[in-house]
Amino acid sequence: MMGKSRGDVVRELRAKVATLEQENKDLELLLETTTQHADAVADEQEVERQDLEIMLEMATEHADAVEDDLHQRAAEAILKSERQLRMIVEATPVPVFIARLSDQSIVYANRMTCQLFGVSQELLLTSKAPRIFFEENDYTRMLNRLETSGSVDRSEIKLVKPDGAIIWAELSLRALEFDEHESVLLAIQDITELRETNEASSRFVPRDYLKFLNRKSIRDINLGDHISGEMSIMFSDLRGFTSLSESMTPEENFVFINAYFGGVSPLVRVNQGFIIKYLGDGMQAIFPQSPENAVRAGVDMLKTVSRLNNDGSFPDARKVQIGIGVHTGPMMVGIVGERDRLQGDSYSDDVNLTARIEGLTKFYSVNLIISEATLLRLETPNAYDIRFLDKVQVVGRSSPLNLYEVFDADDEEQRDFKLQSLSQYDAALDAYYKRDFVSAQTKLFGVLQANPKDKVAWHHLMNATRLADSGAPPEWTGVTEMTAK
Predict the structure, then answer these.
(1) For a designed S-S bond to 285, which of 222, 234, 327, 396 qualifies (C-beta 3.0 to 4.6 A apart)?
(2) For the chain, which residues score pLDDT lower than 50?
(3) Distance CA 237, CA 278 (A)
(4) Pairing between strand 226-238 and 106-109?
């Protein structure tokens, strides 16, 4: 404090004290103001809280009133919708009924349902759906489909009238709530007459043919419907039927040919084929799945004809022989004709070729000939008795064919002879195509000594003898050229 008087020091201290006292007063005023503001804010919040409680109470009371109103409106809407549903169902021109899911009771049925099943509405409304309509487990199966997929549309099913009569129907199901119960609505389309018509028409257009063309009914068939792909085709023909039929009356001809077709035609279906058409005393059949089916069907047909010959099934104990040709290749199968006359048919060069192959059964005096294309596609070629037949160039083809004889259906004696001589027969043909005609002669003589009835061996022996005597021209390939169809 050097340089200041005592008086100066006292004045400075008094000034500081005054400043501090003023600051204290300011702080007290600020504290008082803040407290008043806080009290005011608290008061405002209390008012707002009370207002919110009043509003909440009012809203709750209003919500209860709204909920009651909504319940009432919903109940009225349900009743109205059920009345409308009844009116719609009653006006529907197909049988419709509703069944509860809990106990399967029928709770509603329109008049069409009563007419269809020939019962009163009172009887229906006291019945269980499975017991009055469905065969065992069918109703449960339909409900399971409904639960899984959400709907069932036009599912074909057999229904039973109370009197035991059968109704075929297309059934459609929908889940719904009726009389405040989970229920199912069932609509029935009676297709009994249509099914009977389809059954009758399937004798003209096979069901397998419809399925092959991806058509559900003959009604869905249209001109030009077709499927293209590699398939096996069969042609078969009765040997000498023209001369045989001349000795019979027209009525006897029909009886005879129907006895024949009645025996062999089912074997085509058994082996997953279907008949495209009958060709007088022959037939044309398609096997879309496997050449194995066609070969097996051919063997079965030949064995059946042999049995029919032996048991006297044909009128007047007449005996017949048939020839069968099988080939595999690309073709188109479908519907041809015109709008008012349709027919199933197959088209391709391979179809015509198969007809030529079948015709060669007469030339070689064998029962069943298959092409190399068919042989190479057999899953189990060793399951059949097969031997090489010949290299043949048929009319209308520029390239020769390798053809094979299937002799499973030969009589037991001939079959055994052919099996026993097979290695010698193959060796003879190998020598023949190598131009060693003398060796071929010798081996074929051996075959014929054991089996003089082997007409294929005779055919090759005659050719080998001729060529051994005259010699083969340089362009000779061993191909038998056919000059007639």
Answers:
(1) 234
(2) 1, 41, 63, 66-67, 71, 74, 78-79
(3) 10
(4) unpaired
